[in-house]
Design brief:
The chain contains 5 helices and 8 strands; from the N terminus they run αββββαββααββα. It is an alpha+beta fold. A hairpin with a 7-residue loop joins β1 and β2.
Length: 158
């Protein structure tokens, strides 16, 4: 039997996978080999550590275009059934997710109901955090009032 890394990639993918029916149109093809700490399958392909779902996608569709990434429509990180994968922008991938980033990205208003749109949005460093301008202005106004009252109480200002 040839060394595992010398076997054809398709054989290696078949040998380390199993079909699991999770109620989608087709079963997930789940990787049973090594995984990353985030739960994605890993394989050595062309002398490089690669994600199994990326290898499967590229074998069927070719290279992933720059700026795009592979999204698991089934939400199963170890799945590499190419029918369950989609090549999308990072933004689309995030918005399709269910994590904290996805939940926050889908919000259209702040906790007090002010819209996250137009001039009312302040985008934090790196574009990762949105803040409500109305709430920030109100917080600043209340802080100035409290500061003024504190100065008056100390006798610094009349």
């Amino acid at each position: 039997m040839p060394h595992a890394s010398r076997a054809p990639i398709e054989d290696r993918l078949d040998r380390r996978s199993m079909l699991v029916d999770l109620g989608f149109d087709s079963p997930c093809r789940v990787w049973t080999g090594s995984i990353t700490y985030k739960g994605y399958g890993r394989i050595v392909f062309l002398r490089k550590n690669k994600s199994v779902h990326v290898v499967a996608w590229e074998l069927k569709h070719g290279p992933i275009p720059t700026g795009l990434q592979i999204d698991h429509k089934c939400r199963v990180r170890r799945c590499f059934n190419t029918d369950h994968l989609d090549c999308v922008t990072p933004q689309v991938n995030t918005l399709r997710g269910v994590g904290v980033g996805a939940v926050n990205a889908k919000k259209t208003e702040c906790l007090r109901g002010h819209p996250f749109s137009g001039e009312n949005v302040i985008v934090g460093l790196g574009g990762r955090q949105r803040k409500c301008r109305t709430c920030r202005n109100e917080c600043s106004r209340l802080w100035r009032i409290a500061k003024k009252e504190e100065e008056v109480a100390r006798g610094c200002v009349s």
